[in-house]
Amino acid sequence: MTTWTGRTTDLTVSLTEHSGIDRAAHHRLDEAWLAAAWSHPTTRVFVVSGGQALIDDTPEGTTELVTTPAFEAPVTETHRYFLGTDDDGVSYFALQKDSLPGRMDQSARPAGLREAGLLLSPRDAGLMVHAVALENWQRLHRFCSRCGERTVIAAAGHIRRCPACGAEHYPRTDPAVIMLVTDEHDRALLGRQVHWPEGRFSTLAGFVEPGESIEQSVRREVFEEAGVTVGEVEYIASQPWPFPSSLMLGFMARATSPDITVDGEEIEEARWFSRDDLAAAFESGEVLPPFGISIAARLIELWYGKPLPRNVT
Ligand SMILES: [Zn+2]
């Protein structure tokens, strides 16, 4: 089998780059330290709401998270998440609120991770993905899974505690596998999900089930969705995907049988593409180039051997 890991040096996956932020988890239970950090003049705060934060374009042509000093931050009825510190000792917090604050300057705009992840620096993207993941988990885990009582936020956003039974609940992450399958002719298997717009094809993907290794999960998902059997499986990279709480584990996989039988429920159509097939399909508009931050586009690019055309729609 082709070994892909030697070719991945240029593979940058959004939301996974080194952010330069130390999460400093040992401070999360230290209320005195957190209070001092919050009131420190260099501390920066941003609001996260419904998976969105405010971003703004700089005169230098970059895009950044809109942050404020803590003393300007709206603190009432908020959840405060401590996200970490940078090399200069600056502390970062996110405030979860029901809506984003209004801004006097009109250039700042709300954005979700799918947009912001393409625009922000690794530092800001890392801060935002941490905050969005915490917000999603907090929103969906307000009650104790052991006794049903309402839980309360603790550890600067990283624990929910049950006052009735004492249980501590930690943020959950759901592993999912995403894989580009190739065959003996070096063609790639791409599929169309039932609810996707016309022309959209991508890698197959699915959730890891209880009691299953990630390699088993890759083989099961490909067989369930496309009827293709898979032999060797090679891990490439991972990507936090808090929509609402996944961790995407990216693989290249090698088919041992080329015959396709789609399940018809999740996957409507699957096809083998050679590089020339795919280039021609992009050219004719039959297949839409993948767009966005997803590791799916990076896996396809790794096989394709050059940057994919950008989908500007
Ligand atoms: Zn409980």
UniProtKB/TrEMBL annotation:
Pfam families: NUDIX, NUDIX-like, Zn_ribbon_NUD. Its cofactor is Mg(2+). It comes from the Bacteria. It is an enzyme of class 3 (hydrolase). The keyword Endoplasmic reticulum does not apply. GO terms for molecular function: hydrolase activity; metal ion binding. Keywords: Hydrolase, Magnesium, Metal-binding, NAD. InterPro entries: NADH_PPase-like_N, NudC-like_C, NUDIX_hydrolase-like_dom_sf, NUDIX_hydrolase_dom, Znr_NADH_PPase. The keyword Magnesium applies. Signal peptide: none annotated. Its EC number is 3.6.1.22. Residues 171-301 form the Nudix hydrolase domain. This is NAD(+) diphosphatase. It comes from Streptomyces triticagri. The lineage of its organism: Bacteria, Bacillati, Actinomycetota, Actinomycetes, Kitasatosporales.
